[in-house]
Amino acid sequence: xxxxxxxDESAFGEVIPDxxxxxxxxxxxxxxxxxxETHATEMLAFxxxxxxxxxxxxxxxxxxxxxxxxxxxxxxxxxxxxxLFRVAFHxxxxxxxxxxxxxxxxxxxxxSVPPAIVQELPDVKLIRAEDVAxxxxxxxxxxxxxxxxxxxxIYAEETFAEIAEQLRLPIGTVLTRMxxxxxxxxxxxxxxxxxxxx
Amino acid sequence: xxSSCEPTRHNLPMETDPRFFRxxxxxxxxxxxxxxxxxxxxxxxxxxxxxxxxxxxQLLAGTKAALREAAPAFEIAPPYSxxxxxxxxxxxxxxxLAAAATVIAATWxxxxxxxxxxxxxxxxxxxxxxxxxxxxxxxxxxxxxxxxTFDTETGALPHDDGVPPWMLAAVSLEHxxxxxxxxxSTEPWEDN
Lengths: 198, 192
Fold this sequence. Notes:
Chain A is mainly α. Chain A is 64% helix and 2% strand.
């Protein structure tokens, strides 16, 4: 995680680099890299959930860590994760507004180029191969009616209303099947509810 | 961060938290505009809700990848694709394609298709065999064939042939050369 002399243990049980916790100046590239390695996957997943677009999520992630470079030192060490979520959400909303207003085409190139350190950060994967394998196995254990709803909603991308109409079921039944199925799938991933991101 | 989520974070597994399915619905874009705004307003200062969105996003992406691996054929033909979302558009497309195919076929037939003069092209010996077969079909004794009684030089038919005129009319005894070398090579009577 962090190779520092005295890392702090935050309220969320994560280790915060000393540089982030104590520095009154801008974060060093190493500190940014450490934060990135710790939080980038979770932030990317969050951004993809908000933006529903992989490319824009990655753009927002880059913008988020650009902000970390600029203002990360102002975050309190014990709330760095919450601070990152807030910045990421802000960047996601900014991207969404730009897209809505078709401002992306007017974006000046100079302002869109992140600092070198942000450009050099390694790419992160949203999902791991072992997660997919676990989910694949868990899918086979779902009751057929639950798997059916999962396939239609997630793979065929039908809405819950469309599924309910085609299966001639109340929408509440469809939602319940989906909820139960996702509970089992999430459980199968075997992750604790927080912070177990690579 | 909001403290409202802390009990959930520590006491309940995420998947059993009712807000987790709300996060799933948000990621799927299944919330109404009003609910989505309210959800996003809550995201601003609720770290655990942000975490649920991240988890929901990963779960959905992972499940999609798992489904894709489990059934690669879905890539080509997604399940339940028999029910079109645009049936009217599909019907119009099919009708347009059918009309185009009809026009092309009609044009081709009028240009290259058979004409009344070339509908039948049969070698005399083949015609004779055919007539003979028709003649002998009704006889009990197996004797002379039509070839025995048929003058191949003049092409004259025997008097008592018993073949109805409508059958003969369907067979042209005039020999026409084959239309292509390929046809010629496949005709057995040309081997002699």
